[in-house]
Amino acid sequence: MGCSTKVKLTVFGVLGIVLIAIGGILIDVFDQVIHSEVNEQIPLKPGSETFKKWVNPPADVFLQFWLFDVQNAYEIVHYGAKPIVVEKGPYSYREYKVKTNVTFSEDNATASYYETRTLVFDRNMSVGDENDTFVSLNCPMMGFATLVRFEYDIIKDILEAAFEVLGEHLFVKLTVKDLIWGYEEPLLKFVNDAAKSRNISLGLDDHFGLFYGQNGSNDGLYTIYTGTKDITQAYTIQTWNGNESLPYWETIWCNAINGTDGSLYHPFIKKSETLRLFATDVCRSLYADYEGDRTVKGIDVYRFVPPAKMFGDIKTNPDNIGFCTPNITECLGSGVLNMSACKDGAQIVMSSPHFYQGDPDYVNAIEGMHPEKDVHQTFLDVEPISGVLLSAAKRLQINIAVMPIPLISSTAKFKNLTFFPVLWLNESALINDATAKDFKSQILEPIKILDAVKYGLITIGAFILFCTIVFTIKYWVQRSRTRGGELQINRGDYDVLRDGENEQQDGE
Fold first, then answer.
1. Of 102, 185, 327, 479, whose CB has the highest number of CB atoms within 10 Å?
2. Residue 41's pLDDT is what?
3. What is the share, in percent, of the chain residues with pLDDT greater than 70?
4. Cβ-defined contacts of 315-324 (< 8 Å, 24+)
Protein backbone atom coordinates (compact mmCIF):
# COMPACT_ATOMS: atom_id res chain seq x y z
CA MET A 1 0.00 0.00 0.00
CA GLY A 2 2.83 2.41 0.86
CA CYS A 3 4.67 1.70 -2.34
CA SER A 4 1.49 2.26 -4.40
CA THR A 5 0.90 5.65 -2.71
CA LYS A 6 4.47 6.76 -3.41
CA VAL A 7 4.10 5.87 -7.07
CA LYS A 8 0.83 7.76 -7.39
CA LEU A 9 2.26 10.85 -5.74
CA THR A 10 5.32 10.71 -7.95
CA VAL A 11 3.20 10.37 -11.10
CA PHE A 12 0.97 13.30 -10.16
CA GLY A 13 3.97 15.43 -9.21
CA VAL A 14 5.66 14.77 -12.53
CA LEU A 15 2.37 15.43 -14.36
CA GLY A 16 2.02 18.83 -12.66
CA ILE A 17 5.58 19.81 -13.51
CA VAL A 18 5.11 18.69 -17.12
CA LEU A 19 1.90 20.71 -17.52
CA ILE A 20 3.56 23.82 -16.08
CA ALA A 21 6.53 23.35 -18.39
CA ILE A 22 4.27 22.86 -21.44
CA GLY A 23 2.26 25.97 -20.53
CA GLY A 24 5.47 27.95 -20.11
CA ILE A 25 6.77 26.78 -23.47
CA LEU A 26 3.43 27.61 -25.12
CA ILE A 27 3.62 31.20 -23.85
CA ASP A 28 6.56 31.83 -26.13
CA VAL A 29 5.22 29.64 -28.95
CA PHE A 30 1.75 31.19 -28.96
CA ASP A 31 3.19 34.71 -28.67
CA GLN A 32 5.23 34.02 -31.78
CA VAL A 33 2.12 32.68 -33.54
CA ILE A 34 0.13 35.81 -32.60
CA HIS A 35 2.94 38.14 -33.71
CA SER A 36 3.32 36.26 -36.96
CA GLU A 37 -0.41 36.36 -37.74
CA VAL A 38 -0.80 40.04 -36.82
CA ASN A 39 2.33 40.98 -38.77
CA GLU A 40 0.84 39.17 -41.75
CA GLN A 41 -2.56 40.90 -41.55
CA ILE A 42 -1.66 44.48 -40.61
CA PRO A 43 0.64 45.57 -43.48
CA LEU A 44 -1.09 47.33 -46.37
CA LYS A 45 -1.35 45.08 -49.40
CA PRO A 46 -3.40 45.60 -52.57
CA GLY A 47 -6.76 43.84 -52.39
CA SER A 48 -6.44 42.64 -48.79
CA GLU A 49 -9.18 43.06 -46.17
CA THR A 50 -6.93 45.54 -44.40
CA PHE A 51 -6.63 47.52 -47.62
CA LYS A 52 -10.42 47.64 -48.14
CA LYS A 53 -11.02 48.92 -44.62
CA TRP A 54 -8.19 51.42 -44.94
CA VAL A 55 -9.61 52.85 -48.17
CA ASN A 56 -13.12 53.17 -46.73
CA PRO A 57 -12.80 53.21 -42.92
CA PRO A 58 -15.64 51.38 -41.09
CA ALA A 59 -16.11 54.04 -38.44
CA ASP A 60 -18.74 56.63 -37.62
CA VAL A 61 -17.02 59.98 -38.05
CA PHE A 62 -18.54 63.34 -37.12
CA LEU A 63 -17.33 66.90 -37.36
CA GLN A 64 -19.11 69.08 -34.79
CA PHE A 65 -18.92 72.83 -34.32
CA TRP A 66 -19.62 75.07 -31.34
CA LEU A 67 -19.78 78.76 -32.27
CA PHE A 68 -19.22 81.67 -29.91
CA ASP A 69 -22.06 84.21 -29.92
CA VAL A 70 -20.78 87.66 -28.89
CA GLN A 71 -23.10 89.25 -26.33
CA ASN A 72 -21.67 92.76 -25.97
CA ALA A 73 -20.33 93.80 -29.38
CA TYR A 74 -21.25 97.49 -28.97
CA GLU A 75 -19.56 97.77 -25.56
CA ILE A 76 -16.40 96.09 -26.85
CA VAL A 77 -15.99 98.49 -29.78
CA HIS A 78 -17.00 101.72 -28.03
CA TYR A 79 -15.89 101.21 -24.44
CA GLY A 80 -13.25 98.51 -24.58
CA ALA A 81 -15.38 96.17 -22.49
CA LYS A 82 -14.24 92.64 -21.75
CA PRO A 83 -15.74 90.37 -24.45
CA ILE A 84 -18.62 88.16 -23.35
CA VAL A 85 -19.40 85.09 -25.43
CA VAL A 86 -21.94 82.29 -25.19
CA GLU A 87 -21.26 78.92 -26.76
CA LYS A 88 -23.87 77.61 -29.24
CA GLY A 89 -23.73 74.06 -30.51
CA PRO A 90 -23.14 71.41 -31.49
CA TYR A 91 -23.86 71.76 -35.19
CA SER A 92 -22.99 68.31 -36.45
CA TYR A 93 -21.89 66.95 -39.80
CA ARG A 94 -21.47 63.31 -40.67
CA GLU A 95 -18.07 62.90 -42.28
CA TYR A 96 -17.22 60.41 -45.00
CA LYS A 97 -13.55 59.77 -45.73
CA VAL A 98 -12.43 57.81 -48.77
CA LYS A 99 -8.90 57.31 -50.06
CA THR A 100 -8.55 57.86 -53.79
CA ASN A 101 -5.89 57.53 -56.49
CA VAL A 102 -4.10 54.85 -54.44
CA THR A 103 -0.84 53.68 -56.01
CA PHE A 104 1.80 51.32 -54.67
CA SER A 105 5.53 51.40 -55.29
CA GLU A 106 7.00 48.52 -57.32
CA ASP A 107 8.10 46.65 -54.20
CA ASN A 108 4.88 47.54 -52.28
CA ALA A 109 7.01 49.25 -49.62
CA THR A 110 5.07 52.53 -49.92
CA ALA A 111 1.62 53.65 -51.00
CA SER A 112 0.50 57.09 -52.20
CA TYR A 113 -3.05 58.45 -52.00
CA TYR A 114 -5.39 61.37 -51.55
CA GLU A 115 -8.09 61.32 -48.87
CA THR A 116 -11.32 63.00 -49.89
CA ARG A 117 -13.76 63.97 -47.18
CA THR A 118 -17.43 64.86 -47.62
CA LEU A 119 -19.58 66.36 -44.89
CA VAL A 120 -23.37 66.13 -44.62
CA PHE A 121 -25.34 68.14 -42.05
CA ASP A 122 -27.06 65.97 -39.42
CA ARG A 123 -29.98 67.88 -37.93
CA ASN A 124 -30.78 65.15 -35.39
CA MET A 125 -27.38 65.55 -33.76
CA SER A 126 -27.47 69.36 -33.82
CA VAL A 127 -29.04 71.94 -31.55
CA GLY A 128 -30.47 73.84 -34.48
CA ASP A 129 -30.44 74.45 -38.21
CA GLU A 130 -27.52 75.67 -40.34
CA ASN A 131 -29.42 78.93 -40.76
CA ASP A 132 -29.28 79.75 -37.06
CA THR A 133 -27.72 83.18 -36.58
CA PHE A 134 -25.22 84.56 -34.11
CA VAL A 135 -22.86 87.51 -33.71
CA SER A 136 -19.24 86.84 -34.60
CA LEU A 137 -16.01 88.70 -35.17
CA ASN A 138 -15.71 90.05 -38.71
CA CYS A 139 -12.68 87.95 -39.69
CA PRO A 140 -12.04 89.48 -43.16
CA MET A 141 -12.21 93.00 -41.80
CA MET A 142 -9.80 92.19 -38.96
CA GLY A 143 -7.55 90.42 -41.45
CA PHE A 144 -7.24 93.49 -43.70
CA ALA A 145 -6.72 95.77 -40.69
CA THR A 146 -3.90 93.56 -39.41
CA LEU A 147 -2.39 93.37 -42.88
CA VAL A 148 -1.85 97.16 -43.05
CA ARG A 149 -0.83 97.74 -39.44
CA PHE A 150 2.78 98.50 -40.46
CA GLU A 151 1.88 100.44 -43.62
CA TYR A 152 1.86 104.23 -44.12
CA ASP A 153 -0.96 106.14 -42.47
CA ILE A 154 -2.44 107.00 -45.87
CA ILE A 155 -3.01 103.28 -46.52
CA LYS A 156 -4.78 102.91 -43.20
CA ASP A 157 -6.92 105.97 -43.93
CA ILE A 158 -7.99 104.50 -47.26
CA LEU A 159 -8.89 101.19 -45.62
CA GLU A 160 -10.83 102.95 -42.85
CA ALA A 161 -12.77 104.89 -45.48
CA ALA A 162 -13.52 101.65 -47.34
CA PHE A 163 -14.89 100.14 -44.13
CA GLU A 164 -17.26 103.09 -43.73
CA VAL A 165 -18.42 103.08 -47.36
CA LEU A 166 -19.09 99.34 -47.33
CA GLY A 167 -20.74 99.41 -43.92
CA GLU A 168 -18.19 97.04 -42.40
CA HIS A 169 -18.31 96.53 -38.64
CA LEU A 170 -15.97 94.61 -36.37
CA PHE A 171 -18.80 92.30 -35.35
CA VAL A 172 -21.38 90.90 -37.78
CA LYS A 173 -24.44 88.67 -37.67
CA LEU A 174 -23.91 85.46 -39.63
CA THR A 175 -25.53 82.07 -40.05
CA VAL A 176 -23.78 78.89 -39.05
CA LYS A 177 -23.55 77.93 -42.70
CA ASP A 178 -22.06 81.32 -43.64
CA LEU A 179 -19.21 81.21 -41.14
CA ILE A 180 -18.28 77.59 -41.77
CA TRP A 181 -18.80 77.12 -45.50
CA GLY A 182 -18.60 80.66 -46.79
CA TYR A 183 -20.51 83.71 -47.98
CA GLU A 184 -19.85 86.54 -50.42
CA GLU A 185 -17.94 89.17 -48.48
CA PRO A 186 -18.43 92.78 -49.77
CA LEU A 187 -14.97 93.83 -48.65
CA LEU A 188 -13.26 91.03 -50.57
CA LYS A 189 -15.38 91.76 -53.65
CA PHE A 190 -14.53 95.47 -53.43
CA VAL A 191 -10.78 94.79 -53.24
CA ASN A 192 -10.93 92.27 -56.09
CA ASP A 193 -12.97 94.59 -58.33
CA ALA A 194 -10.62 97.49 -57.63
CA ALA A 195 -7.61 95.34 -58.55
CA LYS A 196 -9.24 94.00 -61.70
CA SER A 197 -10.06 97.51 -62.87
CA ARG A 198 -6.29 98.08 -62.96
CA ASN A 199 -5.56 94.68 -64.53
CA ILE A 200 -4.11 93.37 -61.29
CA SER A 201 -4.85 89.83 -60.13
CA LEU A 202 -4.69 89.34 -56.37
CA GLY A 203 -5.77 85.72 -56.40
CA LEU A 204 -8.44 86.47 -53.80
CA ASP A 205 -11.85 84.84 -53.70
CA ASP A 206 -14.95 86.97 -53.15
CA HIS A 207 -16.12 84.48 -50.53
CA PHE A 208 -15.01 83.91 -46.97
CA GLY A 209 -15.64 80.92 -44.70
CA LEU A 210 -13.44 79.20 -42.17
CA PHE A 211 -13.86 75.94 -44.10
CA TYR A 212 -14.69 77.44 -47.48
CA GLY A 213 -13.98 75.02 -50.34
CA GLN A 214 -13.06 72.13 -48.05
CA ASN A 215 -16.23 70.03 -48.33
CA GLY A 216 -15.55 67.36 -50.94
CA SER A 217 -11.85 68.20 -51.11
CA ASN A 218 -8.60 66.58 -49.95
CA ASP A 219 -5.67 67.90 -47.94
CA GLY A 220 -2.84 66.80 -50.19
CA LEU A 221 -0.90 63.81 -51.46
CA TYR A 222 0.31 61.36 -48.82
CA THR A 223 2.97 58.71 -49.27
CA ILE A 224 3.18 56.21 -46.43
CA TYR A 225 5.12 53.08 -45.56
CA THR A 226 2.96 49.97 -45.94
CA GLY A 227 4.76 47.92 -43.28
CA THR A 228 5.62 45.08 -45.66
CA LYS A 229 9.35 45.71 -45.19
CA ASP A 230 9.31 46.93 -41.59
CA ILE A 231 6.16 46.41 -39.54
CA THR A 232 7.24 49.06 -37.02
CA GLN A 233 6.97 51.66 -39.82
CA ALA A 234 3.47 50.63 -40.92
CA TYR A 235 1.34 53.64 -41.97
CA THR A 236 4.08 56.13 -41.08
CA ILE A 237 4.12 59.10 -43.45
CA GLN A 238 7.13 59.24 -45.75
CA THR A 239 6.19 62.45 -47.59
CA TRP A 240 3.31 64.90 -47.85
CA ASN A 241 2.87 66.63 -51.20
CA GLY A 242 6.24 65.18 -52.14
CA ASN A 243 8.06 66.80 -49.22
CA GLU A 244 9.73 65.11 -46.25
CA SER A 245 9.40 68.25 -44.13
CA LEU A 246 7.33 71.43 -43.89
CA PRO A 247 8.33 74.92 -45.06
CA TYR A 248 6.43 76.94 -42.44
CA TRP A 249 8.43 77.00 -39.22
CA GLU A 250 11.83 78.16 -37.99
CA THR A 251 13.55 74.90 -36.98
CA ILE A 252 14.06 71.41 -38.38
CA TRP A 253 12.29 69.88 -35.37
CA CYS A 254 9.14 71.97 -35.86
CA ASN A 255 9.07 71.32 -39.62
CA ALA A 256 9.41 67.54 -39.25
CA ILE A 257 6.60 65.35 -40.60
CA ASN A 258 6.28 62.61 -37.99
CA GLY A 259 4.03 59.63 -37.41
CA THR A 260 0.89 58.53 -39.22
CA ASP A 261 -2.30 60.37 -40.14
CA GLY A 262 -3.68 59.28 -36.74
CA SER A 263 -6.06 56.54 -37.92
CA LEU A 264 -3.70 53.53 -37.75
CA TYR A 265 -0.45 52.66 -36.03
CA HIS A 266 2.00 49.76 -36.01
CA PRO A 267 0.93 46.67 -34.01
CA PHE A 268 1.92 45.84 -30.44
CA ILE A 269 1.76 49.33 -29.01
CA LYS A 270 3.49 49.80 -25.67
CA LYS A 271 2.37 52.10 -22.88
CA SER A 272 5.84 53.64 -22.79
CA GLU A 273 5.57 54.81 -26.43
CA THR A 274 4.81 58.29 -27.69
CA LEU A 275 2.36 58.16 -30.59
CA ARG A 276 2.98 60.72 -33.31
CA LEU A 277 0.71 62.04 -36.04
CA PHE A 278 0.78 64.70 -38.71
CA ALA A 279 -2.21 67.07 -38.86
CA THR A 280 -2.57 69.38 -41.85
CA ASP A 281 -5.22 71.51 -40.15
CA VAL A 282 -2.62 72.74 -37.66
CA CYS A 283 0.30 72.52 -40.11
CA ARG A 284 2.49 70.50 -37.78
CA SER A 285 3.18 67.11 -36.25
CA LEU A 286 1.54 66.28 -32.93
CA TYR A 287 2.21 63.64 -30.30
CA ALA A 288 0.40 61.86 -27.49
CA ASP A 289 1.44 59.92 -24.38
CA TYR A 290 -0.27 57.05 -22.58
CA GLU A 291 -2.83 58.19 -20.02
CA GLY A 292 -4.70 55.03 -18.99
CA ASP A 293 -6.66 51.95 -19.98
CA ARG A 294 -10.18 52.25 -21.42
CA THR A 295 -12.81 49.97 -22.97
CA VAL A 296 -14.48 50.70 -26.33
CA LYS A 297 -17.44 48.47 -27.18
CA GLY A 298 -16.05 45.65 -25.07
CA ILE A 299 -12.51 45.98 -26.45
CA ASP A 300 -9.61 46.98 -24.21
CA VAL A 301 -7.67 50.00 -25.48
CA TYR A 302 -4.87 52.32 -24.43
CA ARG A 303 -5.80 56.00 -24.24
CA PHE A 304 -3.16 58.45 -25.44
CA VAL A 305 -3.49 62.22 -24.96
CA PRO A 306 -1.34 65.22 -25.96
CA PRO A 307 0.79 66.41 -23.02
CA ALA A 308 0.48 70.03 -21.93
CA LYS A 309 4.04 70.70 -23.11
CA MET A 310 3.09 70.06 -26.75
CA PHE A 311 1.59 73.56 -26.95
CA GLY A 312 3.71 74.86 -24.09
CA ASP A 313 5.63 78.12 -24.20
CA ILE A 314 9.38 78.05 -24.80
CA LYS A 315 10.11 77.99 -21.06
CA THR A 316 8.00 74.87 -20.67
CA ASN A 317 9.18 73.31 -23.92
CA PRO A 318 12.25 74.90 -25.56
CA ASP A 319 11.69 72.79 -28.71
CA ASN A 320 8.68 74.99 -29.50
CA ILE A 321 10.85 78.00 -30.25
CA GLY A 322 10.56 77.13 -33.94
CA PHE A 323 6.82 77.87 -33.82
CA CYS A 324 7.50 81.50 -32.92
CA THR A 325 6.57 83.44 -36.06
CA PRO A 326 7.40 85.55 -37.98
CA ASN A 327 10.64 85.05 -36.04
CA ILE A 328 11.82 83.65 -32.73
CA THR A 329 11.23 86.97 -30.98
CA GLU A 330 7.46 86.61 -31.54
CA CYS A 331 6.75 83.82 -29.06
CA LEU A 332 3.30 83.31 -27.56
CA GLY A 333 2.30 81.85 -24.21
CA SER A 334 1.28 78.30 -23.48
CA GLY A 335 -1.67 76.66 -25.20
CA VAL A 336 -1.77 78.58 -28.51
CA LEU A 337 -0.20 78.32 -31.96
CA ASN A 338 0.19 81.20 -34.41
CA MET A 339 -0.98 79.81 -37.77
CA SER A 340 -0.21 82.86 -39.92
CA ALA A 341 2.89 81.23 -41.42
CA CYS A 342 0.82 78.52 -43.08
CA LYS A 343 -2.44 80.43 -43.59
CA ASP A 344 -1.21 83.12 -46.02
CA GLY A 345 -0.63 85.63 -43.24
CA ALA A 346 -4.13 85.36 -41.76
CA GLN A 347 -4.02 86.07 -38.03
CA ILE A 348 -5.46 82.71 -37.05
CA VAL A 349 -4.40 81.30 -33.71
CA MET A 350 -5.16 77.68 -32.84
CA SER A 351 -5.72 76.37 -29.34
CA SER A 352 -7.57 73.68 -27.50
CA PRO A 353 -11.25 74.51 -26.86
CA HIS A 354 -11.77 77.22 -24.24
CA PHE A 355 -7.94 77.52 -24.09
CA TYR A 356 -7.70 74.21 -22.22
CA GLN A 357 -4.14 73.81 -20.85
CA GLY A 358 -3.46 77.36 -22.04
CA ASP A 359 -2.10 80.44 -20.32
CA PRO A 360 -4.66 81.65 -17.73
CA ASP A 361 -4.41 85.15 -19.23
CA TYR A 362 -6.03 83.87 -22.43
CA VAL A 363 -8.86 82.25 -20.48
CA ASN A 364 -9.46 85.29 -18.32
CA ALA A 365 -9.45 87.73 -21.26
CA ILE A 366 -12.79 86.36 -22.52
CA GLU A 367 -15.84 85.92 -20.32
CA GLY A 368 -17.43 82.60 -21.19
CA MET A 369 -14.32 80.42 -21.30
CA HIS A 370 -14.68 77.31 -19.13
CA PRO A 371 -11.99 74.75 -19.96
CA GLU A 372 -12.81 71.17 -18.95
CA LYS A 373 -10.60 68.14 -19.52
CA ASP A 374 -13.37 65.64 -20.31
CA VAL A 375 -15.03 67.98 -22.82
CA HIS A 376 -12.08 69.75 -24.44
CA GLN A 377 -9.16 67.31 -24.40
CA THR A 378 -8.00 65.51 -27.55
CA PHE A 379 -7.51 61.75 -27.21
CA LEU A 380 -6.69 58.57 -29.14
CA ASP A 381 -8.00 55.14 -28.04
CA VAL A 382 -5.76 52.52 -29.64
CA GLU A 383 -6.17 48.74 -29.52
CA PRO A 384 -2.58 47.80 -28.61
CA ILE A 385 -2.25 44.42 -30.37
CA SER A 386 -3.32 45.61 -33.82
CA GLY A 387 -2.53 49.33 -33.53
CA VAL A 388 -6.04 50.14 -34.82
CA LEU A 389 -7.68 53.35 -33.63
CA LEU A 390 -11.11 52.45 -32.22
CA SER A 391 -12.14 55.82 -30.85
CA ALA A 392 -10.72 59.33 -31.09
CA ALA A 393 -11.54 63.00 -30.70
CA LYS A 394 -9.54 65.86 -32.19
CA ARG A 395 -10.63 69.09 -30.52
CA LEU A 396 -9.40 72.47 -31.70
CA GLN A 397 -10.44 76.10 -31.33
CA ILE A 398 -10.06 78.79 -33.99
CA ASN A 399 -9.21 82.22 -32.62
CA ILE A 400 -8.43 85.50 -34.36
CA ALA A 401 -5.68 87.77 -33.11
CA VAL A 402 -7.22 91.18 -32.39
CA MET A 403 -5.09 94.18 -31.49
CA PRO A 404 -5.30 97.97 -31.44
CA ILE A 405 -4.29 99.32 -34.87
CA PRO A 406 -3.69 103.05 -35.29
CA LEU A 407 -6.29 104.86 -37.47
CA ILE A 408 -8.60 101.80 -37.53
CA SER A 409 -11.34 103.04 -35.24
CA SER A 410 -13.02 99.67 -34.59
CA THR A 411 -9.88 98.38 -32.87
CA ALA A 412 -8.99 101.54 -30.95
CA LYS A 413 -10.49 100.40 -27.63
CA PHE A 414 -8.58 97.13 -27.44
CA LYS A 415 -5.90 97.58 -24.82
CA ASN A 416 -3.60 94.78 -26.01
CA LEU A 417 -3.39 91.64 -28.08
CA THR A 418 -6.46 89.46 -27.60
CA PHE A 419 -7.10 86.01 -29.02
CA PHE A 420 -10.78 86.19 -29.87
CA PRO A 421 -12.53 82.79 -30.03
CA VAL A 422 -14.71 82.22 -33.10
CA LEU A 423 -15.57 78.53 -32.86
CA TRP A 424 -14.28 75.21 -31.66
CA LEU A 425 -14.65 71.82 -33.30
CA ASN A 426 -14.63 68.17 -32.38
CA GLU A 427 -13.73 65.69 -35.10
CA SER A 428 -14.59 62.34 -33.54
CA ALA A 429 -14.45 58.76 -34.76
CA LEU A 430 -15.90 55.60 -33.23
CA ILE A 431 -15.72 52.06 -34.59
CA ASN A 432 -19.18 50.83 -35.58
CA ASP A 433 -20.89 47.85 -33.94
CA ALA A 434 -20.48 45.44 -36.87
CA THR A 435 -16.76 46.11 -37.18
CA ALA A 436 -16.26 45.86 -33.41
CA LYS A 437 -17.97 42.45 -33.47
CA ASP A 438 -15.80 41.26 -36.38
CA PHE A 439 -12.68 42.60 -34.67
CA LYS A 440 -13.42 40.65 -31.50
CA SER A 441 -14.25 37.41 -33.34
CA GLN A 442 -11.33 37.54 -35.79
CA ILE A 443 -8.54 38.88 -33.57
CA LEU A 444 -9.36 39.02 -29.88
CA GLU A 445 -11.26 35.74 -29.39
CA PRO A 446 -8.55 33.54 -31.00
CA ILE A 447 -5.99 35.28 -28.80
CA LYS A 448 -8.16 34.65 -25.73
CA ILE A 449 -8.44 30.97 -26.65
CA LEU A 450 -4.67 30.67 -26.97
CA ASP A 451 -4.23 32.47 -23.65
CA ALA A 452 -6.78 30.15 -22.03
CA VAL A 453 -4.86 27.09 -23.27
CA LYS A 454 -1.40 28.17 -22.15
CA TYR A 455 -2.40 29.68 -18.82
CA GLY A 456 -4.96 26.93 -18.25
CA LEU A 457 -2.22 24.29 -18.52
CA ILE A 458 -0.03 26.26 -16.10
CA THR A 459 -2.94 26.64 -13.66
CA ILE A 460 -3.93 22.97 -13.82
CA GLY A 461 -0.30 21.88 -13.51
CA ALA A 462 0.25 24.16 -10.54
CA PHE A 463 -2.93 22.87 -8.88
CA ILE A 464 -1.90 19.23 -9.38
CA LEU A 465 1.60 19.94 -8.11
CA PHE A 466 0.20 21.78 -5.08
CA CYS A 467 -2.17 18.91 -4.27
CA THR A 468 0.68 16.41 -4.72
CA ILE A 469 2.84 18.34 -2.26
CA VAL A 470 0.00 18.53 0.25
CA PHE A 471 -0.79 14.80 0.02
CA THR A 472 2.92 13.94 0.18
CA ILE A 473 3.30 15.92 3.39
CA LYS A 474 0.14 14.33 4.78
CA TYR A 475 1.40 10.85 3.83
CA TRP A 476 4.74 11.30 5.56
CA VAL A 477 3.08 12.77 8.67
CA GLN A 478 0.72 9.80 8.95
CA ARG A 479 3.57 7.34 8.39
CA SER A 480 5.62 9.03 11.09
CA ARG A 481 2.73 8.73 13.52
CA THR A 482 2.25 5.04 12.65
CA ARG A 483 5.93 4.26 13.32
CA GLY A 484 5.71 6.07 16.64
CA GLY A 485 2.74 3.90 17.71
CA GLU A 486 4.50 0.68 16.75
CA LEU A 487 7.51 1.75 18.80
CA GLN A 488 5.34 2.30 21.87
CA ILE A 489 3.68 -1.11 21.47
CA ASN A 490 7.03 -2.91 21.19
CA ARG A 491 8.37 -1.15 24.23
CA GLY A 492 5.31 -2.23 26.24
CA ASP A 493 5.79 -5.86 25.28
CA TYR A 494 9.39 -5.70 26.41
CA ASP A 495 8.34 -4.35 29.82
CA VAL A 496 5.86 -7.23 30.30
CA LEU A 497 8.47 -9.86 29.51
CA ARG A 498 10.94 -8.19 31.84
CA ASP A 499 8.41 -8.17 34.71
CA GLY A 500 7.69 -11.86 34.16
CA GLU A 501 11.32 -12.76 34.37
CA ASN A 502 11.70 -10.88 37.65
CA GLU A 503 8.77 -12.72 39.21
CA GLN A 504 10.22 -16.07 38.18
CA GLN A 505 13.53 -15.19 39.84
CA ASP A 506 11.79 -14.16 43.07
CA GLY A 507 9.94 -17.47 43.19
CA GLU A 508 13.12 -19.42 43.02
1. 185
2. 77
3. 79
4. 319/251, 319/253, 319/254, 320/254, 321/250, 321/251, 322/249, 322/250, 322/251, 322/252, 322/253, 322/254, 322/255, 323/249, 323/250, 323/254, 323/284, 324/250
